[in-house]
Amino acid sequence: MQGPANDQRRVLLLAGTGEGPRLVQELSRFNWRVSVSVVTSSAAKAYAGLPLERISIGALQGVGGIIAALHQAGPFRWVVDATHPFAAQISHSLVTACAAVGQPLLRYERRREPLGAASLVADAEALALQPLQGQHLLLAIGGRHLPAMAAAIRRAGAIPYGRALPSPDGLRAALRAGLPPDHLAVVRPLQGEVPGAIERSLCQRWGIGVVLCRQSGGVTEQLWHQLTTELGLNLVLLRRPSPPDGMACVEDVSSLLDRLERD
């Protein structure tokens, strides 16, 4: 992958719908030619109308899949990993794949929010040890975590409530978690004219006392800090995994652009 062709101002951006579209706009403003890799076709809709070289849809299958994608669509001057903070497996695979082919890699990591009055738990086992007896707890987390976290809060003596995306995968995750219909809302987060209005209504309707969300940063975590403070609820955050050892990281757009230009 090394050589003069890598000096072209081409970037492969792996991202979702949060920071991704904004990063494309900023990179394009500084004459970087951006290709994007997203997991789903619904995520791709967020990039409609943006100045992309190309967009690839579908999960990259491990280290081998990443190497194949780099050879097929490259060469790139940089690969930028702006995937979700909890998508740890893809970040680890990117480190291995990019090292194997000599591809420069940079991680765009969401800045951590101030903890405030929230508490941190490392995993489901730690959650099960929390003093939650009798509490109505809202699982404001991704579907992948629902079954384990619902089981953990039951062990802690709490009553789980949750949300599911209106998709087959979202509903399957809710079913695996064993949430009864009257403890489940099928909604997309942050929807509606007033962001957070649905979440606020659910907390009030269900008599929620504790909210569990991921320490993912960005607008979703900010919303839960705000809502739980306003409603007088307790907020528990599932601790964010650390980036892979040795992975270069930046936390804002200006640092990203500076690093891309400098190295």
Topology diagram in text:
Layout: E1 10-15, H1 20-29, E2 33-38, H2 41-44, E3 52-57, H3 62-73, E4 78-82, H4 88-101, E5 105-108, E6 119-121, H5 124-128, E7 136-140, H6 146-155, E8 159-164, H7 168-176, E9 184-186, H8 197-206, E10 210-214, H9 218-231, E11 234-238, E12 249-250, H10 253-262
Parallel strand pairs: 1-2, 1-4, 2-3, 4-5, 5-12, 6-11, 7-8, 7-10, 8-9, 10-11
Helix pairs in contact: 3-4
Q: Overview of this structure, please?
A:
The protein is of the alpha/beta class and 263 residues long. It folds into 2 domains: 4-111 and 242-262, HAD superfamily/HAD-like (Rossmann fold, 3-Layer(aba) Sandwich), CATH 3.40.50; 119-238, Nitrogenase molybdenum iron protein domain (Rossmann fold, 3-Layer(aba) Sandwich), CATH 3.40.50. Helix content is 37%, strand content 21%. The chain contains 10 helices and 12 strands. The chain has helices spanning 20-29, 41-44, 62-73, 88-101, 124-128, 146-155, 168-176, 197-206, 218-231, 253-262, and strands spanning 10-15, 33-38, 52-57, 78-82, 105-108, 119-121, 136-140, 159-164, 184-186, 210-214, 234-238, 249-250. The strands form 2 sheets. A 6-stranded parallel beta sheet has the order 3-2-1-4-5-12, sandwiched between helices. It has a 6-stranded parallel beta sheet with strand order 6-11-10-7-8-9, with helices on both faces. Helix 4 links the parallel strand 4 (78-82) and strand 5. It is elongated, with a radius of gyration of 20 Å. The protein starts with 9 loop residues before the first strand and ends with a helix.
